[in-house]
Structure formats: C-alpha cells, structure tokens
Amino acid sequence: MIKAVRGMHDLLGDTASQWQKVESHVRSLLEGFGYTEIRTPVLEHIEVFTQAVGEGTDIVEKQMYTVADRNSAEGAKPETLVLRPEATSSVVRAVLENQLHRAPHPHRFFYILPMFRYERPQKGRLRQFHQIGAELMGDSSPEADAESIVLLDAVFRSFGLTDFEVCINSVGSSACRPQYKEKLKAYFQPHLAALCVDCQKRFERATMRILDCKVPGCRALAEKAPRMVDHLDPESTLHFQTVQKRLSQAGVSFVLDPSIVRGLDYYSRTAFEFTSSLLGAQSALGGGGRYDELTARFGEDPYPAVGWALGLERLVMALEAKELLKVPTRKPRFFFAPMGDKAFEELYALALRLKRAGIWVEMSHEQGKKVKWLMKQADRSGAAHTLILGEDELASGQALLKNMATGEQASIPWQTIEEDLKRRTSEHA
C-alpha cells in the first residue's frame, strides 16, 4: 500500500471540519483588524530564503526541500527552487515585486498557507505544516509592534484560550547589535567546549542564536550571558519602552525574556513568542517580531515591517486540549427512499433541485430495493427525515415523510413537496 509521505498528513472528516472552523474564525478576526489575504506560490527561488533567512540558519542548512527547475535554458545550470519553508520572506518578495512598498500608506496582509521543512516528525512538528500569519508593513512605529502582539493575543483569546504567556524582548538594531555580539562572543568563548555542536557552529556566524538553544547545558550558560536589553542604543531603548507601554494600555500581560531572539536572522528590535504548557515539549504557539532590514537583503532600501505566525496544527492541539474546538457532525437533512422506477425518477429530479438550493439530500441510486433495505440506509445516513415514495403514494398524490428521531409520519401533497421541504429546512436552520 502506498502511504502519505512521512510527516505529511491527510485532513478529512471531522478534522477537516475543525480546521475550516478555525480558519474561518481567524480570517474573520484578521479582516476586522484591516488585514487582507495574500497567497504566495508554494515554490520560490532558493535565493528568496538564502538571502532573507540567512545561510547559517537551520532552515537553509538542514530543512529546505529543493527542486531543480526543468525549464532552464538549454545548456544553462538548472535553477534551484524550494518548497516554501516560511512565509515572511515570500510576502516581502511579493511586496517588492509588485512595487507595493512604494505606496505611502501601510499594508496589512494575512496568510493561511502550508509550509515545508525537512526534519524529524513529532507531535506538533511536521514536514508539511500550516501557518496563519499577519504582516504589518510600512509602519516603523512601536505602536505597530504593539498592534501585532495585541492581534495575536486577540486571536487566541477569541477561541476562549487563555493558557499562554506572552514573552517579549528587543534584539536591537544594526546600530547596537554588532557591539553586543562581540560581548556575547567574549562571554561564550571560554565555554565553547561546553556548548552543543550546533551552538559551536553558531558561535561565529549567529552568536545570538545560542541564547535560543533548548539544550540544557547551553541554556544554563545563556541564562548568565549579557542581555541585549542592557546594550540597546537610545532609539531602540525608547522603541522597546513604548511597545511595553502600549501593551499595558491594551491590557496585554507580558514578561521580559532575554532568550527570545527568534530562529531567523532577519529580526530587529521587538521579538516575541506566545508559549503554552498545553503543547508539551513543543511549547511555542506562535511568535514574530520586527524585520525592517529584510528588504535590504533583496537589494532594496530598508522598509519597516512587523508580523507573526502561528502553527495551525499547534493551535488545534491547544484548543482540543481545552475542549474548545467542538464541531458538530454534519448530517443530511433528508434521505429519499424511492420504490419503483417512476418514483426514482421523480425523487432523483427533486433531490438535484434541493441540492442546488443548498439542502443536503442523500438518496440510494440502487433501484429495485425493498422498503426495509431503504430504511436501513436512511438510518445509517443520519438524516433527520426520510421521504418515501412508491406506487401507492404516486397514485394518491401524497408522499410519506418520516421523522427518524420520533418515528412520526406525515403525508405531504406531492404538488407542494419542494416548497414544504424547503420550509421545514429553514425552520430548523
């Protein structure tokens, strides 16, 4: 038997209904905040991520799925395409390509998209996973940072989910980060041998990411490392203080966490994560931050932007853990039970008309079956009512409608059957 690729799951039945409910709910909330949807291609040129995310990141070094483009010019080296591992870089590419950064007003985008990363599949971490994200672009103010955090807080709370913590930090700017990195190197240099293999590699090219390592030994060393918030330039200090002030005004509780540096190289100033014990080892519900200098990696001037992403699988896990995601099983409104060829023709045409009107009707297409078999099928379908039509009913001009819950039966004039069934549906909508 051919099975799905490891770490990539099918969505069907009640699970698909749950996802539709979550996506619809979040989409409505984001649109209420003034965000519009953006959908980027699943395939991008590899440079979108090597330039934006950074060569030294796990995404680029270990996790990207690459594809050789077959349409390259004859004799030319094939271009390398990748399955989208994260969306922010793709959104920035789209904004620049479509010249949206030339507009004088901010842009608010959201996306609900699948991402792809090669890693060991585990609960809450898959090779094909889905993210909901929001990007506020063209606004450099600390109020924009606060809006982004308030929005993510609102998303979780709108489901009734409150078991999470908002952790924030400032990772500084290009004006102060180089000096801070040197202080970090000086601190970690005597402890290099005690760091994990990955952090030893990060020491030179991504020193701040050692602070984000989850290995206990590295974590213990990081707790005593110099803090970025103590080495901010005056402008970054004021920016971060204002973000905290605006969050307090909005009633969003938060904690300062100097280990929040995010896993991608393009962040600057505000960085944040939402964590929850509901997810077990994978505690991060979502997170993001400011990335004003990301456009410079695409050869453009810096363009202010801040945003976040949450894992849809993890959100569903958290909602299920708190029993906040119950989707009633959908069942047909009517089951049609025809007895005889003429009855079949009449009910088949009626079923199609009702389906076009948005009324779910099930009907057996196996002709010549007896009423006992048809009623068994009706019961299995879960339909609220069964409409029975045979030779006797056709002769009398009265169809028989049975309430499957109570067993009660009623005769309905065939001439008005369609209007009657539509009325019954609207009364119980």
Q: Which class best fits the helix and strand makeup?
A: alpha+beta
Number of strands: 16
Radius of gyration: 29 Å
Strand order of the largest sheet: 1-5-6-11-10-9-7-8
The N- to C-terminal Cα distance equals 42 Å
- Output the number of helix runs: 14
Sheet with most strands: 8 strands, mixed
Helix content: 25-40%
Tell the overall outline: elongated
Query: Helices and strands, in N-to-C order?
Result: HEEHHEEHEEHEHHHHEEEEHEHEHEHEEH
* Beta-strand residue fraction: 15-25%
Q: Give unreliable regions as ranges.
A: none
Mean pLDDT: 88
Describe the structure.
It is a single chain. The protein is of the alpha+beta class and 429 residues long. The chain contains 14 helices and 16 strands. The strands form 3 sheets. It has an 8-stranded mixed sheet with strand order 1-5-6-11-10-9-7-8. Strands 13-12-14-15-16 form a 5-stranded mixed sheet, sandwiched between helices. The protein has a 3-stranded antiparallel sheet with strand order 2-4-3. Helix 5 (142-158) packs parallel to helix 9 (234-249). The longest helix is centred in the N-terminal third of the chain and has 20 residues, at 13-32. The protein is elongated, with a radius of gyration of 29 Å.
Q: Topology, please?
A:
Elements lengths: L12 H20 L3 E2 L5 E3 L1 H6 L5 H6 L2 E3 L11 E4 L4 H10 L9 E10 L11 E10 L4 H17 L6 E6 L6 H12 L8 H9 L10 H8 L10 H16 L5 E2 L11 E8 L8 E7 L14 E7 H10 L12 E5 L2 H16 L4 E3 L7 H11 L3 E5 L1 H6 L1 E6 L5 E5 L3 H11 L2
Parallel strand pairs: 1-5, 7-8, 12-13, 12-14
Antiparallel strand pairs: 2-4, 3-4, 5-6, 6-11, 7-9, 9-10, 10-11, 14-15, 15-16
Helix pairs in contact: 5-9
